[in-house]
Design a protein that fits this description.
The protein is of the alpha/beta class and 244 residues long. 31% of the residues lie in helices and 17% in strands.
Length: 244
């Protein structure tokens, strides 16, 4: 998600109210658990859930391999999570109804929309979690992260929890298919961090540096084959970051 890529949309209210969404999200959580992860996807291993704050705002930063990646995170965590996704997912046949019902924040990648930025910040101000895939697209290995992750985290002051995902390729798939013979989805929740206070309002060059520092943290949690453009961990730095 780039700084110039947060979508303009009339689907969601400017002020976020969890109560407006909780009823339908309870139904969707039930369907995810008893249909999604019984018939269509396999959960393998989960590590580091204790790194997700028990209360208060947070940003989950994931690598994005397959369509189901955010859904796996929604399934694993008990807290309320509001994902961001490209606006096109709203138009997907059949599955497009899921982001509408959940209240996923759509992202139009070529536009800057202050209304959408405001909504993300409202979710965080309400003490809830947003889920962001900084690459902005699915890829088997990391591509360059967009600056939106640093923009939202620095403006909100919310801690960022890196989430390394593996084993989701091939899903959703019917039970007993080839994908189910593998280990299934594997999640690792890393140590939370935030950007230092002096980087709260900076220009694009520093946002780039902040984003790359965050992406190297995520890369270090992934298998080497998944690190992509962040494979050389010797280039990693933590100048803008402090651990929570």
């Amino acid at each position: 998600m780039a700084v110039d890529s947060i979508a303009k949309t009339n689907e969601l209210p400017t002020i976020y109210r969890h109560a407006d969404w909780e009823g339908r999200r309870k139904v969707l959580r039930f369907l995810i658990r008893w249909i999604g992860f019984t018939l269509l996807a396999k959960l393998g291993s989960v590590e580091g859930v204790e790194n997700v704050p028990a209360s208060g705002p947070a940003i989950l930063m994931i690598n994005h391999i397959a369509f189901i990646d955010p859904i796996v995170v929604l399934h694993v965590l008990k807290r309320n999570i509001v994902p961001l996704a490209k606006v096109e997912v709203y138009d997907y046949p059949l599955v497009g109804i899921f982001p509408r019902l959940w209240g996923v924040i759509p992202v139009r990648r070529e536009e800057f929309d202050r209304r959408a930025v405001t909504q993300v910040l409202q979710v965080l101000k309400a003490g809830e979690i947003v889920l962001v895939a900084p690459e902005g697209t699915r890829s088997p290995s990391l591509t360059r992260g967009k600056e939106g992750i640093a923009y939202l985290a620095s403006r909100s002051g919310a801690p960022v929890v890196p989430v390394a995902i593996d084993g989701t390729e091939g899903f959703p798939a019917l039970r007993f298919s080839r994908a189910w013979r593998g280990p299934g989805a594997q999640l690792r929740f890393g140590r939370p961090f935030r950007f230092r206070a002096e980087y709260q309002k900076v220009g694009k060059d520093l946002l780039r540096k902040m984003t790359d520092e965050a992406m190297y943290i995520l890369a270090a949690m992934l298998p080497e084959a998944r690190r992509g453009v962040y494979a050389d961990l010797s280039k990693a730095s933590l100048d803008t970051i402090e651990w929570v």
